[in-house]
Amino acid sequence: MKRIAWLIAFGLVLHTALPGSGSARRIGRILALKRFCFEFSVGASLDRPATLPLRATATDTLMRQYADGVGASMTEEGRLGENILGLPVRAALAFRLDNYWTIKAGLDLSSGGDSSEKSYDLDHASLSSERFALSVRNRLLLVSPFVEAERLFGRFSLFAGAGLQWGRLSHTYAVDSISPAYTGNLTEEITATGMGPLVYVGGAYRYPLGEVTSLLIRLEVRFSTINKWNGDKVSTESLSSGEDRTETVEGDLTRYEWNPYGAGWVEYWDTGNVTADGVIYRDPASMSSRFSGIRFTLGICF
Fold first, then answer.
1. At what angle do helices 22-35 and 2-17 cross, to 10 degrees?
2. 9, part of any domain
3. Total domains, the chain
4. Which domain holds residue 173?
5. What pTM value is reported for the model?
6. What CATH number is given to the structural domain containing 229?
7. How far from chain centre, in Å, is Cα 231?
8. Does residue 225 lie within any of the structural domains?
9. Is residue 103 part of a domain?
10. 216-248 in b/e burial notation, b at 16+ Cβ within 10 A?
11. Residues 38-63, buried b or exposed e (16+ Cβ, 10 A)?
12. What tens digit of pLDDT does each residue of 145-202 get?
């Protein structure tokens, strides 16, 4: 009996070890996927940049200062957006250390933007009027290589990750002006790139779809910074007379305080060098951008 048992055991081992054996391939695949798996997911994100909306907030303040300075009543219509709605795509290779811990490395891409409009109508005591129609568009591309640690709790998990984030900003700022003294359009197109650190935390849920594949649902909160932006600004001015003017300025995005009407300092940012004079400009510095946002993705793990 012992000899028969040994022969049966030897036959099973030999069967599973033979090349081309279906059982061998299946067992090898399962064992490998217990250690490694590939994740791919897409979803939606909402980011709030802490510095990009400065131009919108400053424009409101500057227009009110201008209206007060010329003694006009002003009506505002519309709202300038402050959030970036994006489409993230994420790919990662996961290595399972044991039944509880997994480490991952991958690449995250997110493309998004926001467009908004606002108008300012001024009525003067002399019965003349002015109108300024503002259009702002932001486009943001983020590319982030990352590493992540995940703690499993059955089908649920908690994770935290960090990485390096590269960003490309496209900011278009256009104003149509109609007044007795000036009628025309000014469009500024700023394109800049920068880099900085990224951290995030979140939770996930896996739903088995088969022997080796599962549905992956992730919800995460992200915090990142672009330490310095560098690029150029193309300004195009079109006058009612038919004359067009174009100017290009290159350099770092600079954050500063501005007082063009002598009615109070306003935080602003622009491209190029700003010289502090204590009267119109003060406290210039390279602009960094902080981002905080939430992200939901749906994908597969196989």
1. 70
2. no
3. 1
4. 35-51+72-120+127-248+291-301
5. 0.83
6. 2.40.160.20
7. 18
8. yes
9. yes
10. bbbebebebbbebbebebebeebeeeeeeeeee
11. ebebebebebebebbbbbbebbbbbb
12. 999 999 999 999 999 999 999 999 999 999 999 988 889 999 999 999 999 999 999 9
